[in-house]
Amino acid sequence: MYGKGLRTLSAATCLALGAAFALVFFYAPLDADQGFIQKIFYVHVPMAIVALLGFVAGAVMAIGHLRTGDRRWDLRSYVAIHLSLILGVGVLITGAIWAKASWGHWWVWDEPTLVSFLIVFLLYATYQPLRFSIEDPERQARYASVFAITAGAFVPLNFLAVRLAESLTHPRVLSTTGGALPGSMRLTFLVALAGMGLLFVTLWKYEMASKHATAQLRSLRRKLGGEEIASPGRSAAPRTAAPAHPGA
Amino acid sequence: MSTVGALLRKELRMELRTRESVPAMALFAVTTFVVFHFGLDRDRLEGELASGVLWVTLLFAAMLGVNRLFVAEREQGGFDGFLLAPVDRSALLLAKALALFAFLVAVELVAVPAFAVLLLGPGIGPALPELLGILLLADVGLAVVGTLASALAIQTAARDLIAPLVALPLLIPVVIAATRATAPLLLETGAENVPLRWLGTLGLYDMVFALLAYAVFDFLLED
Amino acid sequence: MGEDTPSAVELQGLRRDRGERTVLQDVSLRLEEGRTLVVFGPNGAGKTTLLRVLATLLRPHAGTVRVLGRELPGEGWAVRGRIGFLGHEPLLYRDLSGRENLRYHARLHGVGRERVEELLDRVQMVARADDPVRTLSRGMVQRLAVCRAVLHKPELLLLDEPFSNLDPAAARLVEPLVGRAAPATRVVTSHDPAGGLEQADEALGLRAGAVQLQGDASRIDAAEVGALYA
User: Fold this and answer.
1) Do C20 and A232 touch (CB under 8 A)?
2) Angle of helix A41-68 relative to helix A112-124, nearest 10 degrees?
3) Which chains would you list as touching A if contact means 3+ CB atom pairs under 8 Å?
4) CA distance C62 to C197
5) Pick from C157, C133, C153: which is nearest to C143 by CA?
6) Which residues of chain C neighbour A136 with C-beta distances below 8 Å?
7) Which tens digit of pLDDT belongs to each residue from B160-204?
8) At what angle do helices B128-154 and B90-118 cross, to 10 degrees?
9) For residue C131, what is the DSSP state?
10) Helix C168-178 and helix C113-122: axis angle, to 10°?
11) Is the dihedral of CA C80, C68, C55, C89 positive or negative?
12) For residue A179, is it within any domain?
């Protein structure tokens, strides 16, 4: 069910990422002040945007889960959030590298977007421990969905608040982000963004397909082997069985 | 509404009987002020620093209350008892949030004077009316998010850890707005006006989270 | 037993899971108003789960559940006030007194204070009504729990071993409220084959979530029930 189109997607992702790579190295201009390291911007910002969209998508899928009661929405939400979290680590690391190169510190409080991102990351880092500590799978899924929706609503509020806070004491230092990108940079940025987005979707599909297959396998084993199959231990990941009704 | 009343009476009665939350929260706040004195090695604080110390302390004291909020329900069948009744389930959210709000106000009645005495440089008199307003606005946010985080955590195995870990990031906008709003009130040179944008932020935050909590809370009660 | 007599409980193919395990499997039954159904089965058979589903505390994962003419879970709100549930937990706050607990539940159910006093008197708990529940013996707590369950004069009683922890004297006090003489349809769990069958109109035997025996209590003998526990 999730395997369809995976090959095309993977190819498209490789293509986009390859193009982005090429553009970053050969096409995008070299920044006068920051030098080569500025090019990390093409990884850092698209990653951040995709991660945030991933969190919001996770929230929307969680709404789907609560409204329909279909546990597959919870699985989709879980995978989206979990991938965004991994990307989030990347954002913080690339952000730190960039900060070190630009201002000599591994972390700066001046950049509100980065700070907001840290807060969001800290919040979502509790998602898996929360899931893991609830044993009943149905309750785990429901509580995780409530969390995902709350955290998703929090993301814009948080960015607003931090921006309000920092903009008064520290003027925006980075002028490369935002709308005023020169043509060559904009093209590279957009391709990088597209590549990152495709990467996310492809990885999401891969993980969904893998989890789905495992769940179906276990469900089949259960049908064949009956109660003797040992129950899987506690897990933070949802373990939905295949849909009960054919064609659902 | 009478349901909320019944629930709230029970909450307050339980707290008065067991005295589990408020005294501990108040004591924690005062002790923390003393710790800050030594940690910062300062006798008198003013402005932004004073504001920050006050709010961080109140925030962590609130976390103590958050941890205990649903414990009786969980351990003594309070959820079942409530779920069996023919009442609107969001009443529990409202009652618990009001109770937590009441506890916070009670703690602040002790903590703010203690702060004024122990650490605050300028007198607190002129700042009081506006400070009260900020406290109340922020308390609403703390109460709503605290109740939600507490309800999320109550069914988990590590509930004392999960509730603060979830609540603290969510409450950062409250910390930002409350500290920025309070700082001008605590200046050595005399209290200045509170920038309205922070009150607006607090109000917006309270509204968004109140609506959100109302929308999702029922799902936490089902089995 | 015609179809015209109104049913208090109607189940068709009820299924309830817990994670990947099925705790109740394909349970179907029809219980008429005023009759008593006794549910037997070893621990873990699903008796408590069945009761909780009927109490609207758990939602069915498959099948249909109709209680007092309303379908669950959608119409649960309509019947909650007409069901009395007595589970393993007394559902009383240990730091509040019996009277405070009952008044609290009375308010939630829209019942007046006089009813609380009436019940306290019926179970002879007036003397200790103002002591915190944690200072009371198990038997006393059980008596209070019974009061809590019948506070709102429910039409359907769901009782999980209601007479546990009660000495004969206390059991006699509680009998008119939740026993055979109570003016309600009852679903009761029991571990006592002979005694249980005696007070039953219908019987249901569960084992590992599946129905093993079912039907009119007069046609089932204690040995069959005993076999459930083998």
Assistant:
1) yes
2) 40
3) B, C
4) 29
5) C133
6) 18-19
7) 889 999 999 999 999 999 999 999 888 878 777 888 889 999 999
8) 130
9) S
10) 140
11) positive
12) yes
What is chain A's mean pLDDT, rounded? 82
Expressed as residue numbers, the domain containing C160 is 7-92+155-228
Tell me the residue length of chain B. 223
Residues near C158 by Cβ (< 8 Å), separated by ≥ 6? C51, C54, C55, C83, C84, C85, C86, C186, C187
Number of domain units in chain A: 1
The reply to whether C113 falls in a domain is no
Mean pLDDT of C100-126: 94
| Residue range A41-86, pLDDT digits in tens | 888 889 999 999 999 999 999 999 999 988 899 999 999 999 999 9
Residue entry with tokens 């409450």 = B171
C73 preceded by a cis bond (ω within 30 of 0): yes
C138 within domain boundaries: no
Max alpha carbon distance in chain B (Å)? 58
Query: Using a CB cutoff of 8 Å and minimum separation of 24, what contacts does A29-33 make?
Result: A29/A182, A29/A184, A29/A185, A31/A176, A33/A102
Structural domain that includes position B56: 2-221
In a domain, A240, yes or no: no
The rounded distance, in Å, linking the Cα atoms of B181 and B193 is 9
Cα angle C42-C46-C50, degrees, rounded to a multiple of 5: 135
Say how many domains are in chain C: 1
CA atoms of B199 and B182, how far apart (whole Å): 10
Q: Give the residue, A235 or B23, on which the prediction is more confident.
A: B23
Q: Give how far B85 is from chain A: nearest CA, Å.
A: 22
Tell me the two tokens of residue C94: 């240990």
Q: Does C129 touch chain B (CB under 8 A)?
A: no
If one counts every other C-beta atom within 10 angstroms of the C-beta of residue C216, the result is 11
The minimum CA-CA distance between B91 and chain C, rounded to whole Å, is 11
Residue C104 maps to a domain: no
Q: How far apart are CA A237 and CA B157, in angstroms?
A: 16
Are the beta carbons of B154 and B70 closer than 8 angstroms?
yes
pTM: 0.89
Of C59, C93, C109, Cβ closest to residue B72: C93
Contacts 24+ apart (CB under 8 A), B81-85: B81/C91, B81/C92, B81/C105, B81/C108, B81/C148, B82/B7, B82/C108, B83/B221, B83/C56, B83/C57, B84/C55, B84/C56, B84/C57, B84/C80, B84/C83, B84/C85, B84/C91, B85/B3, B85/C80, B85/C81, B85/C105, B85/C108, B85/C109
CA–CA gap between residue B39 and residue B24 (Å, rounded): 21
φ and ψ of B130, to 5 deg:
-65, -35
CA angle C116, C120, C124 (to 5 degrees): 170
Look up residue A120 and give its amino acid.
V
Q: In this structure, what CATH number is given to the domain that contains residue C206?
A: 3.40.50.300
ipTM of the complex: 0.89
Amino acid at C181: A
Q: Which amino acid is at A150?
A: T
Residue of chain C whose alpha carbon sits nearest to that of A235: C19
The domain of A203 spans: 20-26+34-223
**Total domains, chain B:** 1
Angle, CA A11 vertex, CA A8 and CA A17 arms, to 5°? 140
CA distance B181 to C37: 64
C174/C182 Cα distance (integer angstroms): 10
Q: In the block, which residue shows the tokens 């205990």?
A: B68
